[in-house]
Amino acid sequence: MHTLQRRSLGNIFDTSTLESLRGPVSRIADTLLDRLAEQLRTTKEADFATTVGEEMPAATISHWLRLPRSDHDLLKSLTHGQAYAQELLPSKSQLAQANEAAGGLREYFTAVIRERRKAPGNDVLSDWIRVWDEIEPDRAVADETLYHLVMFIVIASLETTSTLLSNMVWLLDQHPGALAWLRSHPEQVPQAVEEVLRYDPPIHLTTRVATEDTVLSGFRISRDEVVHVMLAAANHDPDHHTDPDTFDITRAGSHLGFGGGIHYCIGAALARLEATVLLESLIRRFPTLRVTTPPVWEPRVAFRRLTALHVTER
């Protein structure tokens, strides 16, 4: 079913789609950076994470799926809560919060799909509805599949990209030499984004269940055994990366910041676009932006979340 779902979407962020989104994403970035600039003028300090980092993915995915701007806060709250289900060892309270959030997401997106069916338009969700109506004759099954697809994409977009954007600012602030070089070489912004994803990715681990007995690098794994894949550790593997613990924005090569294989992040290209557009604007518009205090992280292991990053202009 997973393979069928992925194939049904096709390459949702192909070159033409990304080009059509570049303008809207740029306008979203400019609007949020205008807001950041105004806060810095009036209070001399602003929280980049809440002002820009969390808002940009919500605005971008809402534009793409044609969701109301008034729903941004609700979607952010629900996705933050649901992400606890992905934790390594979630507590009972976290699981309860994740279950409640999942129920809220089901209610929200079921209503969205129902309303979009009544008046399908020229948008990506309407296109998915048409595709799945051809694949699956049972309307209820088709809508259930659509719900899972849309929910997954929204959760992945909001929860991981927001951390990527804020962490990008933090890491460059902590490496002023790299930031100064980047200001002189703005064409290397995409490569800097890749190094952020390698050095400290939004998702540090993911969990899988073995479908059959196997041996991996000399370790025996039995069928149905739970396996934790340490993506962040793999990104610091010295056999694959030279000086892996050095933050080097000129570094070339691959990483596992977006996972791999059939579970490779479906929204990777969109996340890269958002990060690239934002960083290009930041280094142009805020040449003296600095972080005033270390970031505040929610105590998570898998889906990391940066909740506060205070900045100023010096």
Write the layout of secondary structure elements.
Blueprint: H1 2-9, H2 15-43, E1 46-47, H3 48-53, H4 55-65, H5 72-82, H6 92-118, H7 124-135, H8 139-173, H9 176-184, H10 189-199, E2 205-209, E3 214-216, E4 219-221, E5 226-230, H11 231-234, H12 268-285, E6 289-291, E7 296-297, E8 306-308, E9 310-313
Antiparallel strand pairs: 1-9, 2-5, 3-4, 6-9, 7-8
Helix pairs in contact: 2-4, 2-12, 4-8, 5-6, 5-8, 6-8, 7-8, 8-12, 10-12
| Biggest beta-sheet profile | 3 strands, antiparallel
Number of helices: 12
Mean pLDDT: 90
The separation of the N and C termini measures 53 Å
Order of strands in the sheet with most strands: 1-9-6
Q: Gyration radius, to the nearest Å?
A: 20 Å
* Beta-strand content: 5-15%
Fraction of residues in H or I helices = 55-70%
Report low-confidence residues grouped into runs of 5 or more: none
Care to count the β-strands?
9
Structural class by sheet pairing and helices: mainly alpha
Tell me the series of helices and strands, N- to C-terminal. HHEHHHHHHHHEEEEHHEEEE
* Shape summary: globular
